[in-house]
Specification:
The complex is a heterotrimer of chains A (478), B (145) and C (759).
Chain A (H helix, E strand, L loop, with lengths): L19 H4 L4 E11 L5 E11 L5 E9 L6 E8 L5 E2 L1 E7 L4 E12 L4 E10 L3 E3 L3 E2 L6 E7 L8 E9 L5 E4 L8 E3 L2 E10 L6 E7 L5 E13 L4 E12 L3 E2 L5 H6 L23 E5 L3 E8 L2 E2 L3 E5 L4 E5 L10 E11 L4 E4 L2 E7 L8 E10 L5 E7 L5 E7 L8 E12 L6 E7 L2 H4 L1 H34 L1
Parallel strand pairs in A: 1-12, 10-19, 17-28
Antiparallel strand pairs in A: 1-2, 2-8, 3-7, 4-5, 4-8, 6-7, 9-11, 11-16, 12-15, 13-16, 14-15, 17-18, 18-25, 20-24, 21-22, 21-25, 23-24, 26-27, 27-32, 28-31, 29-32, 30-31
Chain B lengths: L8 H4 L12 H9 L4 H14 L2 H27 L4 H25 L12 H23 L1
Helix pairs in contact in B: 4-5, 5-6
Chain C lengths: L1 H34 L2 H5 L8 H15 L1 H5 L21 H15 L6 H27 L2 H13 L1 H4 L9 H22 L2 H17 L3 H17 L5 H18 L8 H4 L4 H22 L2 H29 L7 H7 L3 H5 L1 H4 L9 H8 L2 H15 L2 H19 L4 H23 L6 H16 L4 H5 L9 H35 L8 E4 L5 E4 L1 H12 L5 E3 L5 H8 L2 E2 L8 H12 L2 H10 L4 E5 L10 H15 L24 H5 L1 H7 L2 H4 L9 E3 L4 E3 L10 E6 L5 E6 L9 H17 L8 E4 L1
Parallel strand pairs in C: 3-4, 3-5
Antiparallel strand pairs in C: 1-2, 5-9, 6-7, 8-9
Classes of the chains: A mainly beta (478), B mainly alpha (145), C mainly alpha (759).
Pathway (chain A): Protein modification; protein glycosylation
Organism (chain A): Nadsonia fulvescens var. elongata DSM 6958
InterPro entries (chain A): Ribophorin_I (IPR007676)
Chain lengths: 478, 145, 759
């Protein structure tokens, strides 16, 4: 198989035990721990680059990574890789140490690290729900300010030799609340640098409260229902997605004023100069949904019908669905909509002997959003058997059932995969479904339909015959 | 007052010929008031009696019975009150409906009316009668709950 | 031998004709359906206007909760805080129809959305209506006329106006039921069959379940019978047909909860009951006439007639006074006196479709059929069989009602189509004969028809067939004349089709929820403000938020925004509507207690001034004022909303009462400021009333605040403020806040504790 299988399951085996910390032996030292925190998007991306050294006497192959236990539920993305080979490293949940409120994850090193040897690994984390608007309510002419709460020094199970944290923001102002002397950042163009700080003890932290202005709406999909209907007859996969989304950004203080919105609506969307924006800019006025190349017949509706303000662009590289919600979605507002499109089945179908293999993208939604809950349903053609689903991301829950749709007699086998806390970053992941579908099953539907119609006409014919009979017998009787 | 009462006595009507004299109540009232013409009235009743077939008599008796039943229901309603109004209405309209349907059947089957109903044979009218009665009593049944 | 051949060929010809007829009918149905799909093609599959939104919502309730729950549905999301016994106050026929269709489709596992069923129900039934019209007209004249009538019915704008895709209203199925009931009635009266009478009663029941206009049938059929009786045309077939129809139909109609005991109580139904009784008496007297000697019969007849009339008259007056029989309804009065509603019931008069019909709309809705209509009636008069009388009675009554109320144009359209079809059919029969002995042939054709229709009368007519000798000249002259007539009529028909298509596509295919406009480059621009605002309400307010608006938008708010409303298009409680009108027409101080008392969270107003949408609330304002003045003459006075010159002004000259009224404030709040930089600060220009609202009268709000305004300002939603949490008067609180804001702006915001890292 080309695409690699499951990597992590954060909510999987939670061996929450008191001795989680006992497992973590002081075998390593982080010689250099540098972090990059990206605050220019709706969700925070942290990338750690750690040079680790084996300070034990024996070779080691397991490195423990510490996470704040209160933060674990918000981690939507967690990858580790070896910097040199760029290979992904396996992450395993070890458990929570309740004394220090720390979750430990074991990272399997690419090879056994000899004593005193060093290796450089990279950790990529995506955190959702950690940005809060401050103040929560602002006037419509004011900017949106977000508060990021983090630590100036990274949390680690091992001592750190030297660490630095670099933050990237998009807006024009950054305030540090409760600043502490000796820990001021260096400011350079669009970046803040904390550190370098030296010789940090394990599990130490230093709170960092950053308040910065941001034109980005904090779009959050509370729920996504994604359905893929595979049809061999029409030779396509029909996708339909239902979104419930909201904006977690700053709310309007005195109700929405169309006047103020119209007055400040003359901003240039593409302008990189964000000095003259206000909260109107931080509302969701357009959602961009990149689709696979070859997608067609897109539609955009909601509970009260078609939304006419959408554009669908198709070119060779891919299709782009640009949606304009019915109203600008300000902080605290919700919106709900449905989009759908069709995709050529041939492009993602492989026949492997008796079995068919279909590759479906995991998510394709709007860019730069996070998902609270995803229900991904794949509806297979009627008569498919021996269904096997291989998701590249392990679902929280899997359910199998039967869907009845257009003229179905035995129904379509369907698989539902449920996920929670997912980020836009997973767009590249795929789900592979394999099933058997005999030619007989393929022709079952037209046969069934014609049989029903045949029976219908025969019944009508018989009924007309019977009717005649009754009248004639009646005549005979009386 | 029930919807079934209209059906059950229909079986026993052939024996109760006596009622025939009180055929239509209005008629009998008039006959007492106009004593001079009572003789001719008697005569016509006799005529009718002699000419009518059993089937016609059966129907007429049934109709007379329904009229009596309807009047009784109405009197009951006036005297006692119409508390479950839909029950009274159901009972009353079932008698009226049945009367009307029987009248239709009688008219259609009457040999003197053949040219008026070119496309309705007596068999057909019986069938129609059954269909009509079924609908009627279904509606009444549903009405009373 | 020859005879055999002839019969055979006639048989084949008939088969071919049958096939052709079936094909033509299918074609007509297809045309009827597809011409109603303009709105779907141009806009989308959406429920139109106002009432359909309620029907749609009720249908969804039916589909989700089942039939019995639907019948007992108490809706607490409308008419807050009263609620509405919806299950008992609606005609369930429409909803049940689409519910059944939905169910059947689901049995065949066709997961068609209930919305699409609702949208396409009216076009589908229009196909059936065309068929029913065919059947009806066939009974009147012949198949050819039937086909013509079906075609007319399929595309006549008068009917299309109520049956385009998306206009999911009772009328959508009611016209089909009307026509089929009439057809069955004709059939019953022709054959004198209980079966047809019962079928007629069943469709009558369906009609009662579907539309309040069933009263039209309830009176049409008795009037027909009555006229027949007066003309001395009584026969036993009439007795059979009417008795079976009335006995079964009335009983069945009382099953509908909304109708209940009306058929024996309300005056509208008394005619039918009276004719029923009359018919019984007539039939009984016929029976007696056969049984008794003529002398005796006469005496009995006279005495009983006098007795019955006095008895019935006494009973009727007594019952009316005792209140057993309901007095005439208001809408009914307005049918007789067009000014009645204006004076007594402003709420009925305020609905545009209850206005008397303007003359041009007859032509607009039926085009050339309107002048063929009298011709057809004349031709029908010529024959005047029992069933023809029906058409005549229908034409008379229908014309009158259509003249009184615009929306009753709908009931007139079928009879126009039928009689126009009869006229054109007769005309074409006469003129489409180009053979040398055309006249002869025409005669034979008529005879042939007579053979089919009245086999007993053929013998006499055949002798009337005379030899006609014509010279060539006369023949050619006649040919030219015929040709001219036919060409012109073909042209008329062609124009008729063009007119129908044009009217349908331009006048009747707008959903009115979505407005269409043109971009400067000519491309279509959809103005979707209503749905924008309703959707905002649905998504961003609490589930049980109460929205106050003028009653026109009640159903839409219930259907699209799914929020509780105070009043809606059901208009069953005039006082409640007047309360809303009062709140809209009063000043903020007076309106606020009303708003609080009714737990209003949001107020929705429609304002067309920015875009030029004329159906907005300011234009309906006078009705609000009038309706509330009817209840509170001391508080609301219509006069105060007019200037001294008696003008209805919204600009600088507007009266103080006008400017203080809540509706005015909500409509124009912030509006002049929008134009601040455009026309030298003169103020906001109202495109509907063509007046300029100067900056100086720009309204200030105290007890409410703007919550949402749609893109083109059409829908504006305001939030009612809670009582001030410091116990202040809201007016003082607003003034205080304003002062503070100014101060705050002056003061620099440099006293932050935080360290600003980068500017």
């Amino acid at each position: 198989m080309k695409w690699s299988l499951s990597f992590i399951s954060l909510c999987g085996s939670a061996i929450s035990c008191a001795f989680a910390s006992d497992l973590v032996l002081p075998n390593f030292k982080n010689i250099e721990f540098s972090r990059r925190i990206d605050l220019s998007r709706a969700n925070v991306h942290l990338s750690d680059s750690i040079t680790i050294q084996n300070i034990a006497k024996v070779p080691q192959s397991e490195y423990f990574y510490a996470l704040d236990a209160t933060e674990v539920d918000n981690v939507a993305l967690f990858f580790a890789s070896h910097k040199k080979s760029q290979s992904r490293l396996e992450i395993r949940d070890v458990g929570v140490d309740f004394e220090t409120d720390t979750s430990y994850y074991s990272i399997k090193l690419p090879y056994e690290l000899q004593p005193q040897d060093t290796i450089e690994i990279q950790i990529l984390k995506g955190i959702v729900n950690c940005l809060k608007p401050l103040p929560e309510f602002v006037d419509q002419n004011e900017k949106q300010f977000l508060l990021y709460t983090g630590s100036k020094i990274p949390l680690s199970a091992y001592p750190i030799g030297e660490t630095s944290t670099k933050l990237a923001v998009l807006g024009s102002t950054v305030d540090e609340l409760d600043p502490e002397e000796g820990f001021e950042p260096n400011v350079s163009d669009n970046n803040l640098l904390f550190g370098p700080y030296k010789d940090i003890h394990p599990l130490s932290s230093k709170t960092m409260l950053l308040r910065y202005d941001s034109p980005i709406p904090l779009v959050k999909v509370d729920k996504l229902e994604r359905e893929a209907w595979i049809s061999h007859w029409s030779n396509q996969i029909a996708f339909e997605e239902r979104y419930w989304l909201s904006n977690l950004g700053a709310k309007i203080k005195d109700g929405f004023s169309r006047l103020k919105f119209m007055k400040s609506a003359r901003f240039n969307v593409n302008s990189q100069n964000f000095k003259d924006y206000n909260i109107n800019f931080s509302s969701v006025r357009e959602l961009t949904v990149p689709l696979q190349a070859g997608s067609e017949n897109a539609y955009y509706t909601d509970l009260v019908g078609n939304v006419s303000t959408s554009r669908f662009r198709v070119d060779e590289k891919g299709s782009l669905l640009q949606l304009k919600p019915r109203y600008p979605i300000f902080g605290g507002w919700n919106y709900n909509f449905t989009i759908g499109w069709e995709y050529d089945l041939k492009k993602s179908l492989k026949k492997d002997g008796e079995r068919y293999l279909v590759k479906i993208p995991f998510i394709e939604g709007p860019v730069d959003v996070s998902y609270n809950e995803i229900d991904l349903t794949v509806i297979l053609p009627e008569g498919a058997t021996a269904v096997k689903v291989e998701p590249s991301i392990v679902p929280k829950d899997t359910a199998e059932f039967t869907t009845y749709s257009f003229f179905d007699s035995i129904g379509r086998p369907s698989v539902k995969l449920s996920y929670d806390t997912i980020m836009d970053h997973y767009r590249r992941e795929v789900i592979i479904i394999s099933y058997e579908l005999t030619t007989r099953a393929l022709y079952q539907k037209p046969v069934a339909i014609s049989a029903v119609f045949g029976a219908f006409f025969v019944t009508i014919y018989l009924l007309s015959q019977i009717n005649l009979n009754i009248s004639s017998t009646k005549k005979n009787k009386l | 007052m029930s919807k079934r009462s209209s059906k059950v006595p229909a079986m026993s009507t052939p024996t109760s010929i006596k009622r025939e004299t009180t055929l239509e109540p209005k008629q009998s009232i008039k006959s007492t008031s106009t004593s001079t013409s009572s003789l001719t009235l008697c005569q016509s009743v006799h005529n009718y009696w002699a000419s009518a077939t059993t089937k016609v008599k059966l129907m007429d008796t049934f109709m007379a019975f329904l009229v009596v039943l309807g009047v009784l229901q109405f009197i009951f309603c006036v005297l006692v009150g119409n508390f479950p109004f839909n029950a009274f209405l159901g009972g009353f309209s079932s008698t009226v409906g049945q009367f009307v349907l029987t009248a239709c059947l009688r008219i259609q089957t009457s040999p003197s009316n053949v040219q008026q109903f070119p496309q309705v044979s007596p068999e057909r009218s019986l069938g129609d009668f059954i269909v009509g009665s079924l609908i009627l009593h279904f509606a009444v049944y549903h009405f009373i709950n | 031998m020859k005879l055999k051949q002839l019969t055979f060929s006639v048989d084949t010809a008939e088969r071919v004709q049958l096939l052709l007829r079936v094909i033509i009918l299918i074609g007509i149905a297809a045309v009827a359906i597809s011409s109603r799909l303009f709105s779907v093609v141009r806009f989308e599959s959406i429920i139109h206007e106002f009432d359909p939104w309620f029907n749609f919502r009720a249908t969804k309730y039916l589909v989700n909760n089942g039939f019995y729950k639907f019948l007992n549905w108490f809706d607490d999301r409308t008419w807050y805080p009263l609620g509405r016994v919806t299950g008992g106050t609606l005609y369930p026929g429409l909803m049940v129809t689409s519910g059944i269709i939905h169910k059947i489709l689901h049995i065949f596992s066709l997961p068609i959305d209930i919305r699409n069923i609702c949208v396409l129900l009216a076009p589908a039934f229009s196909g059936l209506t065309a068929y029913a019209t065919y059947l009806f007209t066939k009974e009147m004249k012949n198949e050819a006329a039937g086909l013509l009538a079906a075609a007319f019915m399929g595309i006549a704008p008068g009917y299309i106006s109520r049956s385009v895709a998306g206009s999911y209203d009772n009328e959508a199925i009611a016209i089909f039921l009307l026509m089929i009931t009439f057809y069955l009635w004709i059939k019953a009266i022709k054959l004198g069959s209980v079966f047809w009478g019962a079928t007629c009663a069943m469709f009558y029941f369906y009609m009662v379940a579907a539309w309040g206009g069933y009263v039209f049938i309830t009176n049409m059929i008795p009037v027909h019978v009555f006229v027949l009786l007066l003309m001395g045309r009584y026969n036993d077939r009439i007795y059979v047909a009417y008795s079976s129809w009335y006995a079964l139909g009335t009983l069945a109609s009382m099953q509908i909860p909304f109708v209940g005991f009306l058929p024996i109580r309300s005056s509208e139904h008394m005619g039918a009951l009276g004719v029923f009784g009359l018919l019984q008496l007539v039939a009984f007297s016929q029976f007696l006439r056969n049984q008794l000697s003529p002398k005796l019969f006469k005496r009995i007849l006279i005495s009983s007639v006098i007795g019955i009339i006095t008895l019935a008259g006494l009973a009727l007056t007594a019952m009316t006074y005792a209140g057993v029989i309901a007095p005439w309804g208001g809408r009914f009065y307005s049918l007789w006196d067009t000014n009645y509603a204006k004076v007594h019931i402003p709420i009925i008069a305020s609905v545009s479709e209850h206005q008397p019909t303007a003359w041009p709309s007859f032509f607009f809705d039926t085009h050339m059929l309107v002048w063929l209509f009298p011709a057809g009636i004349y031709l029908i008069f010529q024959e005047l069989r029992d069933e023809h009388l029906f058409v005549i009675v229908y034409a008379v009554l229908g014309s009158y009602f259509a003249g009184v109320m615009v929306r009753l144009m709908l009931t007139l359209t079928p009879v126009i189509c039928v009689s126009a079809a009869v006229a054109i059919n007769t005309l074409f029969e006469m003129y489409t004969n180009f053979t040398i002995d055309g006249v002869k042939c025409t005669l034979t054709i008529t005879n042939k028809q007579n053979i089919i229709e009245e086999p007993t009368q053929v013998a006499g007519k055949k002798e009337s067939e005379t030899k006609v000798e014509e010279s060539d000249k006369e023949f050619y002259l006649g040919l030219v004349g015929k040709f001219a007539v036919i060409t012109s009529f073909a042209l008329y028909l062609f124009m008729f089709v063009i007119h129908c298509t044009w009217v349908t596509s331009n006048a009747y295919s707008s959903p009115s929820v979505v407005l269409a406009s043109r971009n400067p480059d000519g491309s279509q621009l959809l103005i979707d403000d209503f749905r924008e605002a309703y959707y905002w309400l649905r998504m961003n307010t609490e589930e049980d938020a109460r929205v106050m608006s003028w009653w026109d938008y009640g159903y839409q708010i219930g259907g699209m925004a799914d929020r509780t409303t105070l009043v809606d298009n059901n208009t069953w409680n005039n006082t409640h509507i007047a309360t809303v009108g009062k709140a809209m027409a009063s000043s903020e101080e007076k309106a606020y207690p009303i708003l609080r008392k009714h737990d209003v969270d949001y107020i929705l107003v429609v304002f067309g001034g920015h875009l030029g949408y004329s159906g907005d609330d300011i234009n309906k304002f006078l009705w609000m004022v009038r309706i509330s003045e009817g209840i509170w003459p001391e508080d609301i006075k219509e006069r105060l909303f007019f200037t001294d010159k008696g003008e209805y002004k919204v600009d600088g000259e507007a009266t103080q009462t006008m400017r203080d009224s809540l509706l005015y404030k909500m409509s124009y709040y912030n509006y002049p400021d929008l134009y601040a930089s455009i026309n030298n600060g003169a103020g906001g220009y109202d495109r509907v009333r063509q007046q300029t609202i100067p900056m100086s009268v720009s309204p200030k709000l105290n007890v409410i605040e703007e919550a949402f305004t749609s893109e083109n300002w059409i829908v504006r939603i305001y939030k009612v403020k809670d009582l001030d949490n410091m116990g202040r008067d809201l007016f003082k609180a607003t003034a205080f806040d304003e002062g503070r804001n100014k101060k705050k702006r002056k003061a620099s915001s440099s006293d932050k504790k935080a360290a600003t890292l980068r500017v």
